[in-house]
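Exercise 7. Predict the joint structure of the components listed below.
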Amino acid sequence: MRGGLWQLGQSITRRLGQSDKKTIARRCYASEADLKKTVLYDFHIANGGKMVPFAGWSMPIQYKDSIMESTVNCRENGSLFDVSHMCGLSLRGKDCVPFLEKLVVADVAGLAPGTGSLTVFTNEKGGAIDDSVITKVTDDHIYLVVNAGCRDKDLAHIEEHMKAFKAKGGDVSWHIYDERSLLALQVTILEKSQGKVRLTGLGARDSLRLEAGLCLYGNDMEQHTTPVEAGLTWAIGKRRRAEGGFLGAEVILKQIADGPSIRRVGLFSAGPPARSHSEIQNENGENIGEVTSGGFSPCLKKNIGMGYVKSGLHKPGTKVNIVIRGKAYEGSVTKMPFVPTKYYKPT
Amino acid sequence: MALRIWASSTANALRLSSATRPHFSPLSRCFSSVLEGLKYANSHEWVKHEGSVATIGITDHAQDHLGEVVFVELPEIGGSVTKATGFGAVESVKATSDVNSPISGEVVEVNSKLSATPGLINSSPYEDGWMIKVKPSNPSELDCLMGAKDYTKFCEEEDAAH
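Solution:
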């Protein structure tokens, strides 16, 4: 997870790029020329973007300002991100909602048109195939975005279930938006921020999502992690908890009833920032879990991290030790998000 | 390329900026300062040999690539360091990097200011941001290191390769 100074800039690529182990293996043999470029590649270069390989794409990790400045500016004013490496698709048809509800834990039927939610695609064992943001455009049109590194497996998964669904007479079809490119704009108040919204790269994006307590798929959530363990029980709609009907529902509903054996928690710690795979110990030095993401928070100016610990030791305020390069540093379990998210909620 | 044009016009409309670094123009980033009189390792550490003591730190080029340093791990005084082997680490927002010793010897002093002010490595890599002082056990190791001119060339070549 770390290299010498001569590998500068590579570490984060590796850390961020963990979302797809296969891509990483491939990347080791792939030359820069094999990386895919978004339509904004030249625009990034012209604006001083420092390009790095990420999930098979050449993406800007930062522009001319530092990750620290960039992160803080996003919260104070705003950021424009090129997220066109991610995969956007639409599901259409009068049965698109019941179809999607077989694959994700969200109460899609209960979403008002024009609103969205974070959700999780689950497998038969209740583990997460990917996390995704879904938007209900209308009752017969859902738009969703999945991770770049999970694209192939997600699309294969959706396609397989769509074939079976249609064979039984269900009305659903999809469209993958490869002819378009996706941008993300995150702002506070546009008037105040005019002239201060900046192009923002993967580096700040990782700091921002960590401060917001959001999982990075591949680091904080994997095939074997259930949404309950990941602290995403809130994303399982009330009706879905009562009815089930999604892949792995038996496992997940049992975990909601009995409590999971491990839980994702937020961590503050002293010393060097905890990084993924740092061991978490209790005060007696016994192993209780592992850090999955960590770094220095540009907004809080201190170390933050997240990881999984045994249930019972997950309560905010629980004292822990985090082992970094063989030394134990004091830390404590804390609530997430670390920085208030201030999501826009239409009134 | 329609999207690119759209993005450019949106960027103009929002008066988007990619921001400017206060201290580095894009050009100067490629030519970080390299001081005469110091010796440099290809792992981007410098060493300044004065009398019986050699001071070690990381170069301006290294700190520029790392970004803001948020934590510095230093060895104990009295311990030994070995040429081309890690003696500590610097943590930036984005990454952890090992710091190698350009020469072998005994650690006689560490820069304790770095624990409270790790940013000294960014603001003053060759002066206030020094990391350790070493009593060299084999001063001839210094001869294998690069001078300022060679190191400048080395950085340019390395940047070009990326």
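Discussion. The two ends of chain B are 26 Å apart (CA to CA).
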